[in-house]
Amino acid sequence: QKEVEQNSGPLSVPEGAIASLNCTYSDRGSQSFFWYRQYSGKSPELIMFIYSNGDKEDGRFTAQLNKASQYVSLLIRDSQPSDSATYLCALRRVNTGFQKLVFGTGTRLLVSP
Amino acid sequence: DAGVTQSPTHLIKTRGQQVTLRCSPKSGHDTVSWYQQALGQGPQFIFQYYEEEERQRGNFPDRFSGHQFPNYSSELNVNALLLGDSALYLCASSRGTGYEQYFGPGTRLTVT
């Protein structure tokens, strides 16, 4: 079982719709969760992070974390064609005080005009 | 506010050669992590440097080594290059080892 699992997609949504991106993880010791957006040929860009159970909102983005179910999601409201990218879910585990990010393979989102 | 910078942007090497990639962290950041991203995959953690020491290492062979300088910039060295080392190499910086990581633009390495 992979540490972080994401559906590779593509997830296709029309402009203006809500895009829902999901991520599950296997290690209950995971503490922090991150969503990165990566355009084709570019590097990942941090868009959201969440540490506590529940929802965290930032503009059109909402991250949701459920540690009991080992599930984290990203909602994008009013999706725009410019949101078309690969969305990477990452977690951070504590290991002797120094922490690395473990990434999923990403979900490709396509927003059609 | 300068972000994370990496050089070079692209690099083509031959099998068996050695390569050095460079990274300057975002202003105010003191920790540098290196990742390898193969096509269609998520980034894979190589190692992390803090206070000029390697603090944590992923599942990469000793051919991969690094260094951090007093100004917090860092180098990634790869010896005896293999075709499978072809990837996007990403540097990420953070303020301390426990904070959010921000990526540089990456170095695209092609090994022929």
Q: How would you characterize this protein structure?
A:
The complex is a heterodimer of chains A (113) and B (112). With 113 residues, chain A is mainly β. Chain A is 0% helix and 60% strand. In chain A, the strands form two sheets. In chain A, strands 2, 4, 5, 9, 10 and 11 form a six-stranded mixed sheet that branches. Chain A is globular and about 40 Å long. The mean pLDDT of chain A is 92. Chain B has strands spanning 5-7, 10-13, 19-24, 31-37, 44-50, 53-57, 64-68, 74-78, 87-94, 102-103, 107-111. In chain B, the strands form two sheets. In chain B, strands 2, 4, 5, 6, 9, 10 and 11 form a seven-stranded mixed sheet that branches. In chain B, a hairpin with a 2-residue loop joins strand 5 (44-50) and strand 6 (53-57). Chain B has 112 residues and is mainly β. Classes of the chains: A mainly beta (113), B mainly beta (112). At the A-B interface, strand 5, strand 9 and strand 10 of A face strand 5, strand 9 and strand 10 of B.
What global shape of chain A is seen?
globular
- Rg over CA atoms of chain A: 14 Å
Strand content of chain B: over 45%
Largest sheet of chain B: 7 strands, mixed
What are the segments of chain A in which pLDDT stays under 50 over at least 5 consecutive residues? Answer: none
Query: Helix fraction of chain A?
Result: under 10%
Beta strands of chain B, count? 11
Strand content of chain A: over 45%
Q: pLDDT below 50 for ≥5 consecutive residues: which ranges of chain B? A: none
| String of helices and strands of chain A | EEEEEEEEEEE
- The overall pLDDT average of chain B reads 95
Span between termini of chain B: 37 Å
What is the percent of helical residues of chain B? under 10%
Describe the global form of chain B. globular
**Secondary structure tally, helices of chain A:** 0
Largest sheet of chain A: 6 strands, mixed
Q: What is the H-and-E element order of chain B?
A: EEEEEEEEEEE
Nearest-integer average pLDDT of chain A: 92
Supply Rg of chain B. Answer: 13 Å
The termini of chain A sit apart by 37 Å
What structural category arises from helix and sheet content of chain B?
mainly beta
